[in-house]
Amino acid sequence: MSSELLNDPWLKPFEKDIEARGALFRQTLSRECRSDLSYCFGRHSDGVWHHFREYAPNATALYLLCDAADWQPRSEFAFHKGTEEGVWELDVDRKLLPHNAPYKLWVEWNGGSGERISPFARYVTQDAATGIFTERVWEPQSPYQMHHAAPKGKCLFPAIYECHVGMSSEEGRVATYNSFREEVLPRVVRAGYNCLQLMAIQEHPYYGSFGYHVSNFFAPSSRFGNPDELKALIDEAHALGLRVIMDIVHSHAVKNVVEGLGAFDGTRTLFFSGEHPAWDSLCFDYGKPFVRNFLLSNCRYWLEQFGFDGFRFDGVTSMLYHGHGLGKTFTSYADYYNTDYNEDAGCYLMLANELVHRVKPDALTIAEEVSGMPGIALPLEHGGFGFNYRLAMNQPDYWIKTIKELPDEAWDPGNIFFEMTNRRHNEAVISYAESHDQALVGDKTLIFRLADAEMYHAMNKGNPSPVMERALALVNMIKAVTFASTNGGILSFMGNEFGHPEWIDFPREGNGNSFLYARRQWSLRDNPFLRYEQLARFDEALVRLLEQYAAELKSIPYCHYASRETQVLAFSRGRLLLLFNFAPAHSYDEFELLLHPGKYTLLLDSDRSEFGGFARLAPAEHFTALCCSLSERKECHRATFYLPARTVQILLRE
Prior knowledge:
Blueprint: H1 3-7, H2 15-31, H3 37-40, E1 42-45, E2 49-55, E3 59-66, E4 80-81, E5 87-93, E6 102-109, E7 112-116, E8 124-126, E9 133-136, E10 159-164, H4 177-190, E11 195-199, E12 202-203, E13 216-220, H5 227-239, E14 243-248, E15 272-276, E16 281-284, H6 289-306, E17 310-313, H7 316-320, H8 343-359, E18 364-367, E19 389-391, H9 394-405, H10 413-421, E20 429-431, H11 436-439, H12 446-451, H13 466-484, E21 489-493, H14 522-526, H15 532-548, E22 558-563, E23 568-573, E24 576-581, E25 588-595, E26 598-605, E27 622-629, E28 635-643, E29 647-653
Parallel strand pairs: 10-11, 10-21, 11-14, 14-17, 17-18, 18-19, 19-20, 20-21
Antiparallel strand pairs: 1-2, 2-5, 3-6, 4-5, 6-7, 6-9, 8-9, 12-13, 15-16, 22-23, 23-24, 24-29, 25-28, 26-27, 26-29, 27-28
Helix pairs in contact: 2-8, 4-5, 6-8, 13-15
């Protein structure tokens, strides 16, 4: 019996399902698992020749298209069949394809033919005039050499800064790896985060897809720069003490045929099992050894060739179920263990975690998984899938629902505490109040939901505004209770740390191809006269405090007090005590709590003026829990606190 089952007796009826899952993983790992395809297929060079190797079992002929061939399928550039079934090979003089030279493949099959790009292409560019994508040789005379290793050891408290390189500039343009390295990395460090999560790295034809409709899985997106410039970004991040994880998309692929994998050898079935009913994309056939090994090789490639420190796996729920989790509520364990479970996809995810942690033992793997599949963030040897963390995707949904549907007076601290800690406690989560999902057009960020139009004319510190005062206070409280209740790490999207206004909308035909909402207005955060600075200061103070006391967060959150009537919440994490007063207008001068004995020192107070508060507490104030009697046989320790309305305090017990 696995440890997962031992820890949860409710899983006992499904022991055979879980054991079968593990057996399939072990069987596949022992006989069909490869991660070296990127070193065996595609184009590779020695000092004299380019060696091309492709897997196209349905093809009847393959040709190299390039300038030397006048972009025609010529016999001297024809591939020949290799010794392995379905494999095609070609050697070309390196002089014919120098650095940055463009090329494509011409594939023929029974009943058709067409231009293609290798599934293992490592550098793909788009012609600005025609929009056509072409693979290129990237072999500079002096290739970039990485100089800095990632921070050593396991990250005890991942504080993740989720970001998108292209929209990281304040200017109305697609930003670059270089500009991000020079301008944004220092901001991430100053904000206190220790992990960078890069989105939209794998090449994608449509910029507005946010990078989730991938065409070229081994090619870093050239719209942001060349491969060496991405390496330089990661190298500098490491030099600054940041780990860098990649938002990797193995849940589906874009349908595109010419520049994508849609029909590389004339068939969809080489890579895919069918179409995704909601995403207008193609779903990988994880049961095929070639597909599975293609994706495993992709993981290894990004770790070894670019120095990434782990992955956030996108769309895990969609992978785990044949029905992609669409329309299911997952209200009982029986919803996870039935014929809807995609055992091939589950096996692939287990193999991917095994591989990633073999290649880089301290790597971080995070599952974007919303169904609550038991064991997703448990080690493989305990019957789990091997992820280090799962995203706590219930949390942002809860905050949206609360803000939209409940007046402030109806916020229930007990319910808040339950929602923030409602998880399997032996599985670590990445907690977050909002990510890029909540900022997309059609949705709203937390600050924009709370302040709305008032943000356009009341963000000046000298302009009194009850609406903005409420918005700042609640955003800070929401972040504090979400982040401090985690049992793993935290995440925030680029700009949300200072309450970036409005929404994200990439250039498209429907908005006149405007960059107005596909950028980050850093000048707002840097303006000392605006409230954005106050939001940023609190976010930084909170993140740094939680990183400093990460060891305390290993303990299970213990609720000392939660009342809908008073709207006060008090819980502890080890020696940290967190006090929240969600009441809109009622402050408590001497609020009594039964606590662990000791002296409590104030570490963080959201009411400080630098955070946009009213400075109603003295800095570094001390409180002492004094002994008292509940009865003749039982003693306790009681302390009294001043709890101003709409504030959070974090104290340390000494």
